[in-house]
Amino acid sequence: MNALTTWLNQLAPHWGGTLLQAAWQSSLVALVLLGLVILLRRRPSPLRYWLLMIALLKFAIPPMLTLPTGLFSRMEPPAAVVMMTSIDSASLSVFMPTREKGLSEAAPNQVPIPNGTEPVMLAASQPSGSDRSTPVQPLAGVPARLHWLSWLMLVHLLGMNAVALWILMQMLALGRLTRKAVERLDGPVFELFASLGAQLGLRRLPRLVVLDSGIAPVAFGVLRPVVLLPRQLIEHLGPAQLRAVLAHELAHHRRRDPLAIVFQLLLLVVWWFNPVFWLLGRWVRKVREDWA
Q1: Of 18, 182, 209, 283, whose CB neighbour count within 10 A is largest?
Q2: Contact 112, 103 (CB under 8 A)
Q3: In Å, how far from its chain's centre is CA 222?
Q4: Residue from 274, 288, 12, 28 nearest 163 by CA
Q5: Is-contact 3 144, C-beta < 8 A?
Q6: Which residues contact 125 (CB under 8 A, 6 or more apart)?
Q7: pLDDT the model gives residue 201
Q8: Spatial distance between the Cα atoms of 48 and 14, rounded to a whole number of angstroms
Q9: Whether the Cβ atoms of residue 63 and residue 25 lie closer than 8 Å to each other
Q10: Is 136 helix (H, G, I), strand (E, B) or coil?
Q11: What is the largest CA-CA distance in the chain?
């Protein structure tokens, strides 16, 4: 357990520094591009969409600059307990006698150690300067404690697992709906669907599945593209409206939007705590639907 705690305490400063640098750089780029998209709100949707995708891509790129700024870069690494049998008396800030009753004779530059006793245990902080090359090892038998930055790293990892589990549950629920749906392979609706796919230049026509539940139309699937429609929508829409709905969903597949959504969800697993990322994701979805 001590080895795991020590490893976490050593890893936490590196995690904190990298995450902090990546967070402020990515958030700054996202806010600048979001402001530009708002200014260009009357411009075509493709331009605004790709600007937002550039901002999204920045969250997947490691920090371009490593600047000595922020809380984590200024804090000292966690302290460790070390075994010391002697210490240079010049480094002591208090006077310690070299001879006392019951003590053995001490060397001129060493702290005296009582006869027959164990070596002295002292708490030492991270060495500085030339001493940093010597690793600080915890004292055997003394339980190590997690630093607060290590706890913060564990909270981040716990949040990542929770978000990943939530995404997996949503995907499984969508898969269950697809299995309950009926695939259309013929009929007027399928013929219109296939005709629109050919007009859009799709090399592979997605599956058209119809579900009895009253859900919204959705396009999904990277390896097996699917367009899911509710039966009520097909029955109540006119030919022109149905054509617009089918073209809208097929356009998502033509632009590889399902792949972009998977990429966005993977980034969400890491950046679940960042409100700027949530704001960016909201705008990406809005402009994506405006474009389709």
Answers
A1: 283
A2: yes
A3: 22
A4: 274
A5: no
A6: 76, 79
A7: 93
A8: 35
A9: yes
A10: coil
A11: 105
Sequence-distant (6+) residues with CB within 8 A of 66 are: 17, 21
Q: Count Cβ neighbours within 10 Å for each residue of 34-66 and write b for 16 or more, e otherwise.
A: beebeeeeeeeeeebbebbbebbebbeeebeee
Amino acid at 173: A
Q: Find the helix or strand (DSSP H, E) in which 189 lies.
A: helix 188-199
Quick one: tokens of 99?
């001879």
Q: Taking the domains of the chain in order of start, what are their residue ranges?
A: 2-74, 149-291
**Angle 65-13-87 (CA atoms, 0-180°, nearest 5)?**
125
pTM, 2 dp: 0.73
C-alpha distances (whole Å) from 133 to each of 54, 74, 121, 126, 130 are 41, 20, 21, 11, 7
Extract the residue ranges of the chain whose pLDDT is less than 50: 69-74, 77, 79-109, 111, 117-118, 120-136
Q: Which two tokens stand for residue 52?
A: 């937002």
User: Quick one: CA torsion of 232, 233, 234, 240, rounded to 10 degrees?
Assistant: 150
E-strand stretches of the chain: 80-83, 121-124, 182-183, 207-211, 218-220, 226-230
Domain 149-291 belongs to what architecture?
2-Layer Sandwich (3.30)
For residue 114, the cross-strand partners are 103
Q: How far apart are CA 225 and CA 250, in angstroms?
A: 10
63-105 pLDDT per residue, tens: 876 555 444 444 554 544 333 334 444 444 444 444 444 444 4
